[in-house]
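Morning F.,

Quick status update on the modeling queue. The single chain you submitted on Monday has been processed. Sequence for confirmation:
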Amino acid sequence: MRGALQLAAFALLAYAVSSPEFAQEAPAPLSVLQEAMQTTAAPARNADLPVAPAPSAVQLLTAFKDSDVKFDIGDLMDLLRDRKHEGWVLAAYPDPKTGQPLIGAGFSLDLPEREHPQRDPLNPHPFLEPSSADLWQAAGLDPARLKDILGQFNDRLASLGMRKFRKKIRTLEPQIAGDEATLLLRVGAIQAIYNARAYCRYFDDLTASQQMAMSQLVYQMGVNLEEFSQFLSLINTGSEAGTSGALQLRASVAADAAYWKSVQQSLIHSQWARLYRVRALSVIAMLDPDYSADPRMAERRVGLTMRPAVLHRWRSRGGAMRNVASNRDHAQHPAHRRTARSRTRRTA
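Structure tokens below.
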């Protein structure tokens, strides 16, 4: 189009030059033609082209495909879902520590969208921290229901107080169906997978079990995983993009048992592993590159290096001394994940 307009302008200039009036009026048509040519060319240089808006959190979450990861997301959901204790509640109930409203497998109902900057200059993948309302919508649930559930929760909390409210958890009338709670759990798991890529530069190069371990860590800890600086430094070893031999280095690291043992050790000695021993043992074992060949052996190797459960002694009514293991694994269930991105789960 621009070339055609220029040709037309030059043709008009040639006609003007050949006309008898050119001697008296030459400056006028020349200046007009120059202005016209500049005008026709300007849009190609200066026009404000429309910029496609960035996809929303809802679009990013709903665009997830099961083939985006090497493991079965259903297996991850089975690990995160726990119908024992308070791990699967179909009515809004208060978190024991913060009083935040939770539902299903610990889905937080009132969290705002938050900023989570990517501090790793070598990882182009951003973090995704949408609001509870966005996650609810991504699960395909009616936003009006979320508002109603929050209203009922606030009324109950105001009338009963935290302690009485929590005692009634098992007798609360369901506010969502089991399949709806599953949809919320799936969205939370997808968000964890998305953010696992932001924590790990070469998430796609990990084995299926290692990808699942990273996703579980993010689901459980959220932004608290930022505090595991040694672990994050080790997990990103050899993943510098754009350097010669980077792929070879990453391949050698992936098969290096000693390297992965050091990665595991960075978690084994953490407070998280001491507080949530059984769950931590399972997750840490999945980081073993040979985990799929013998999961039990991988867990045994980790268990041998972890601190044993603390034994508390107390006397029963009959006077006999009894030992009770206290590794606080009852506190590991998703119901007390106050958020999929901000705090480690705890129970009362």
